[in-house]
Amino acid sequence: MHQTRDENDLEKISKEESSKTRESEVNEVISETSVALTVSELDFYYGKTKALNGINMLIPENKVTAFIGPSGCGKSTLLRIFNRMNDLIENTRVEGSVRLKGQEIFSPEINVSDLRQRVGMVFQKPNPFPKSIYENVAYGLRIQGINNKSTLNVTIEEALRGAALWDEVKDRLHENALSLSGGQQQRVAIARAIAGNRPVLLADEPTGNLDIASGKEVMKLFKELCHDEKNPISILMVTHDPDLASTADRMLLLNDGKTEASDIRSAWGLDDEGEEE
After folding, report:
1. Distance CA 28, CA 174 (A)
2. 238 near 75, Cβ under 8 Å?
3. Per residue in 33-49, pLDDT tens?
């Protein structure tokens, strides 16, 4: 039996209202805890093409949040909003609001360099510089004007421990980072991104070029970083892999530049450990 146009419209409205209700419930739960990022009515354009459309979401603090969705849906564009990497692309514009711990990141008073020192980023392909392991991790610190040897030594060790790499490279710190395995190189990139106690880490397909075992190591590391007693961080990641996304604390589904679901863990029947109930 075919549905009439009115029935189809009613079904569509019902689904939209259900989605809004679910989003409101999820955001209410998050608002009772700490919020790392608040996104309100966010639109983004490449020229005249609208890539993000009316995004509203709360990103919880000290959790792993995964953005999933089909290719071209706006996941990476949204991720790059949070440290304003899209500013580097010509003929783009953004409308709406993004607040990092209550501070508007598009405010004229914001120093973009300072923002990027607070919001680190890791990419799909491990991208160590052709320098020593030590200098790779020290790179961002030196840009900030931190050159004291003892301060660098302590901070670099903390970052490598945070990236679960210290025990593997502590006797090789002055070797070229390009000599490491792919999984180790990605952890060097993570150490570089978290050095200096950045509160937020963005990860764009961080396991896309890694084997399964190395990918699982990275996800385990992300969970540990979020729950670190000394310097917990909030992690936002993009992935095409539903199995990988299911290990995150929260999953957000994007499609055609819009959030279709604010949290789909319960829809997939997942408990807090990423296992089926």
Report:
1. 49
2. yes
3. 589 999 999 999 999 99
What are 199-243's pLDDT values in tens digits? 999 999 998 888 888 888 888 899 999 988 888 999 999 988 888
Residue 193, classed as helix, strand or coil, is helix
Q: Give the span between the Cα atoms of 264 and 246, in whole angstroms.
A: 9
190 CB contacts (<8 Å, ≥6 apart)? 122, 162, 163, 201, 206, 218, 221
> What does the alpha-carbon distance between residue 142 and residue 67 come to, in Å, rounded to a whole number?
32
Query: Is residue 114 scored above 70 in pLDDT?
Result: yes
Structure tokens at 117: 């020192």
DSSP states along 43-64: EEEETTEEEEEEEEEEEETTSE
How many CB atoms are located within 10 Å of the residue 238 CB?
24
CA distance 79 to 230: 26
User: Residue ranges of the alpha helices (H) in the chain?
Assistant: 5-31, 75-81, 112-118, 133-143, 149-162, 166-169, 182-194, 212-226, 242-245
pTM for the model stands at: 0.80
pLDDT tens for residues 44-85?
A: 999 999 999 999 999 999 999 999 988 889 999 999 999 999
61-83+112-268 to CATH, choices 3.10.25.10, 3.40.50.10490, 3.40.50.1860, 3.40.50.300: 3.40.50.300
DSSP 268: G
CA 206, CA 219: separation in Å to the nearest integer? 9
Secondary structure letter of residue 120 according to DSSP: E
